[in-house]
Amino acid sequence: MIKGFYNLTSGMLSQGRRLDVVANNMTNISTAGFKAEHYTDRTFDEVLISRVGNKIKSPYETFEPYQAYILAPDQLYTDYTQGSLEETSLPLDFAIEGEGFFAIDTGNGVAYTRAGSFTLDNEGYLCLSELGRVLDREGSPIQLPTDKIEADAVGNLYTKDGNDYMGTLGVYMFEDNQALERTPYGLFTGQGAQLNEDVVIHHKQVERSNVNMVKEMVNMMSTQRTLQSAAQMSKIYDEVIKRVVNDIGRL
């Protein structure tokens, strides 16, 4: 009977983690360029086997599965699907259609984002507010004399009259987006970035969050009910064990 506590406790911890992820997705539903996260878990033995492998000593030996009582975190993965594009009419807003990220020099290295709502800092550099300067195709910061600009579909920036070229937005992609790590500020870091030569840039638009509010609400209600059920069952287990101990104590 004690084993039931392992199931229930690990289940409550797992559902608590899942609820945190759902809450974070819902909080960022209006954050430009935000990518939803999804949490998965498996039993402890399944996670262990997937990481160390099923090692068989001889051709005559087979792996004999045992009963697992603990859920363990399996994966927290990010959904990188395209969010909808929204017209803003702001001259320093840009949206990527297709694969890739804008590159940001954070001062502690280069990070990447789908959020293209930029501003100009005090020195006239294009920047992601308070996070760092936007980089061009050569990896250098982009400096603009004014925010009155025009841009074409490949990210070339020009003065309002179209006569003076001022730089090109760099859009970088990765072989495996799931290998990227999310920073506390919603940016991504990773190795092996390469220029996307076929990128399409939409000027005066931003990419919205790809969070599906309906799905997140359903996930939240389902997770809360599961969490409540596990908590209630743990109370029942506790009462049963108390009665068993008291009855045994009288004998």
Short description:
With 251 residues, this protein is an alpha+beta fold. It is built from three helices and 18 strands. It starts with a helix and ends with a helix.
What does it look like?
α1 (3-27) packs antiparallel against α3 (213-250). The radius of gyration is 25 Å and the shape is elongated. 29% of the residues lie in helices and 26% in strands. A hairpin with a 3-residue loop joins β8 (126-128) and β9. Strands 5, 6, 7, 8, 9, 13 and 16 form a 7-stranded antiparallel sheet that branches. It has a 3-stranded antiparallel sheet with strand order 10-11-12, with no helix packed on it. The protein is an alpha+beta fold. Residues 56-66 have low confidence and may be disordered. It is built from 3 helices and 18 strands. The longest helix is centred in the C-terminal third of the chain and has 38 residues, at 213-250.
